[in-house]
Design brief:
Layout lengths: L6 E2 L3 E9 L1 H4 L11 E7 L19 H8 L1 H4 L1 H7 L5 E8 L5 E3 L3 H6 L8 E8 L4 E6 L5 H9 L7 E5 L5 E4 L5 E3 L3 E8 L5 E4 L15 H7 L19 E6 L4 E7 L3 E4 L7 E13 L6 E4 L3 E4 L5 E16 L2 H4 L1
Length: 332
Amino acid sequence: MNILYPLKFQPIFRDKIWGGQKIKTILNQDFDDLHNCGELWALSGYPGSESIVANGFLAGNELNELVEVYMDELVGEKNHETYGNVFPLLIKILDANDWLSIQVHPDDNLARQRGLEGGKTEMWYILQADKDAKLIAGFNQKVNQQTYLQKIEDKQLPEIMNFEDVKAGDVYYMPAGRVHALGPGILLAEIQQTSDTTYRIYDWDRVDNQGNSRELHLKDAMAAIDFDIADSYKSHYTKKKNETVSLVKSEHFVTNLIDLDVSIEKDFSDLDSFVIYLCAEGVFELDDKVHDKVLLSAGEVVLIPASTAHIHLKPLNSAKVIEVYILPTDKN
């Protein structure tokens, strides 16, 4: 009998100057006395901010402690060989009530050169967006370093950035090196590598109550930026009911969308990886037919151990579910 079971976790809330109230008003997650909640860390193995199990006999244990104890049973054999005892993915909910800084993240190679914990490739799934909400993804024209630096000096960086109108259901893949920023009025789910390294390039000339600007990381960012432009920055997918639809497939993670209005079964017997389910909309029930059923509402996450072969997903009326795992063969 598989001792491990579908794991839920206590949310970690982060107060951000650009945050808002949607995590409370839309997702019904009470972030206590925080003024503005910009981030909900739903599943984290980031050292110092590890998620705590909320259900079952393992309640109270930290995620990385479980990785250390259960190893391949929890994360998969090749994942444990590759990432060790730190859980390799970080799942967040972001609520932007103001522009985040224009920023970039290093890739794995640059991170290793600088002695950092790892690179930061991420993807965004838009949960809700206000009318006319926008984000920045990449450049809107071919840019060289000289032009880029001149625009920064002239405080005109936004002129060469690619602005995208967004709506619920949109997907954006943000590989390390792609300059980006999240605009006001957007609530999204973020799937990323376990890293918290951000190089801030431009912060909209904001100052705090004492007149101080936030620190910029222009020199660090220069080595990280990918100046290539893409044909399309949005990830396109075909919407289907009750089927697993691919959103992003990369060496760092695979993400799928399942739009449910009937029960389905999932078979992971050939998958050497944990599986994460994030409820993007509605409510659904997850059942491995061995342990207690788990109920998830929008914004909640459950971790399926790699040792689990089969599960059933049952929507209560309907639900949209983001499925996340790592294909170790793509990494090694």
